[in-house]
Amino acid sequence: MQKTLSNIFLRWLTLTVVLSVTLIGTAWFVDSYSQYRHDISEMRQSYMEEHKTLLQDKVSQALEHVAYMRSKLTHWTEEAVQERTDTAWLLANGLTQQHKDTLSKEALEELVRESLRQIHYPDQGYYFAINIDGTEELFADHPELEGTNMLQVQDSDGKFVIKDMLEFARHDKTILYSYKWTKPDQGNKISSKIAAIRYIPELDWIVGTGMYLDDMEEKIKKKALHWLEHAHWGKDKKGYLFAGTWEGVSLVGPAKGKNMLLVTDPNGVYIVKELIEKARNGGGF
Known about the structure:
By secondary structure, the protein is an alpha+beta fold.
């Protein structure tokens, strides 16, 4: 009888220990697993936040770079036309100094005129020359106007462009002048233009060239896109920027040159439409 009670007690005690160990182990496992999931969730959230911050920094840097380039539109236009006019002046001045004692004034004018006429720039740039009395001596874009007095010519804002140029250019340095002018091969389209002009005393001419601001803007766009296209970061430089138009055309990125507006992901979401909508509303993730 006593042995039976001892066996029962021993079995009960063993069962109690096993159950206790099991319960404690289960509780520990559940707690550890819960902590593990919590830690993983925090790590994932921290990882996501780090990458959001990284992406936001990269996009902000890109926007700042593009904004900087846009801010240089007028400055770079002025630099370009001034350099070109200085080149024209050096050419004209060199020719006049070299041949003034051997050529008549008419022959010297013809030499300078035709030498400058041959020079053109990819952005529709050309040289012009105006006699101090207002007569157009060189107008490479409209040669039919050469020999015409242009003193009464006004731009779309009513400025007497030729009068102003002749008045401002009577200095021994290159002068910048802003006005509105029609673009070659674009009918009556008026665009903002900056000219650089300089006086040639021996001929009593001013010589100069101009550039349309929207032509310089196109150059800046190409430079900006080139910069965006070559901005990479991260392991193996797999991080990249993409850019596109409101119409969905990809300008930079894997789909460059394609219209992605109607492209969907496996769930049928119009990704680019969503991106454009997000951008229109101030940006986001």
